[in-house]
Amino acid sequence: MTPAVTVIVPGYDVAAYAGEALDSLRAQTRTDWTAILVDDASTDETGALFDAAAADDDRFRVVHHPAQRGLGAARNSGLELVRTPFVGFLDADDRLTPRALERLVGTLTASGSDFALGAYVRLRPDTAGSYTAGMVQPWVAAATDPTRLGTTLDEHPEASGNIVAWSKVSRTDLWHRTGLRFPVGKAYEDQVVAQQMYTRARAFDVIPDVVVEWRERADGSSITQHKGELPVLRDYLDALTGGIAVLDAAGQTRAAASRVRLILTMDLPPLVDLARDHVDDAYRRDLGAFARALWARTDGAELPQPAATAVAAARLW
């Protein structure tokens, strides 16, 4: 069977979870896929798991980085090898839902749009040592529900809140036509790329289906769980700022305003909690400058609690 879609699966030291990610591909109701597994110089058994999958199923292909280069570079390595009409991403510690490829590729085939995005949920550890999928959060639903085919940011600015790479399948032509690639050496590398996709696509689709279960690791080892570290915070704020700058440059004022409000409401409060007792004053200074810059764009618009309290505190730092 000629594959229709390539799924790029980057992984670094995720042997504890990679088997579930690969099983979620094997369980897809749409079977005309191929996967490029990129081992980013793992020090555990991730590379061996990838090799075993490829030995057992020729839909898997493995790339081994000789030295760790980061998630953005790993995704870029995969993109260079894509030969199918469609491409998507799956981090090796997450899981696709069984109908994810069927729904995303099927939607694009019917609509002719450049990419499609779906909803996602958190996989959180429970007291029994397992992981339980949560509910679709309001900001995720705002971007993906109800179904919209052939839409744009002009028509649906709230889509800009869906900034993760792995909730989408796109036409490979979009990456070739626009020269899109992930930034290298930065955390949160998909934030800017997502906004570039929205602003450069001729049209995109949104569907309310949950397509990915996004793991919050029990051992706290994922990058999203290290926002209390100053270098990680700076990468995070740079990514948020860079994404808004993409929207500004494209003249997407409504999408930029929607993104600013979502960041102030959802992203800033937990960062303020981390900052209050942080040992490094630079953490508070950087967060304060970021909060003031975003607040200046709101014209004093009222925010819900606890976001209003958090923003007021951060503006004083």
From TrEMBL:
<keyword id="KW-0328">Glycosyltransferase</keyword>
<dbReference type="GO" id="GO:0016757">
    <property type="term" value="F:glycosyltransferase activity"/>
</dbReference>
<comment type="similarity">
    <text>Belongs to the glycosyltransferase 2 family.</text>
</comment>
<keyword id="KW-0808">Transferase</keyword>
<dbReference type="InterPro" id="IPR029044">
    <property type="entry name" value="Nucleotide-diphossugar_trans"/>
</dbReference>
<protein>
    <submittedName>
        <fullName>Glycosyltransferase</fullName>
    </submittedName>
</protein>
<dbReference type="InterPro" id="IPR001173">
    <property type="entry name" value="Glyco_trans_2-like"/>
</dbReference>
<dbReference type="InterPro" id="IPR050834">
    <property type="entry name" value="Glycosyltransf_2"/>
</dbReference>
<dbReference type="Pfam" id="PF00535">
    <property type="entry name" value="Glycos_transf_2"/>
</dbReference>
<feature type="domain" description="Glycosyltransferase 2-like">
    <location>
        <begin position="6"/>
        <end position="127"/>
    </location>
</feature>
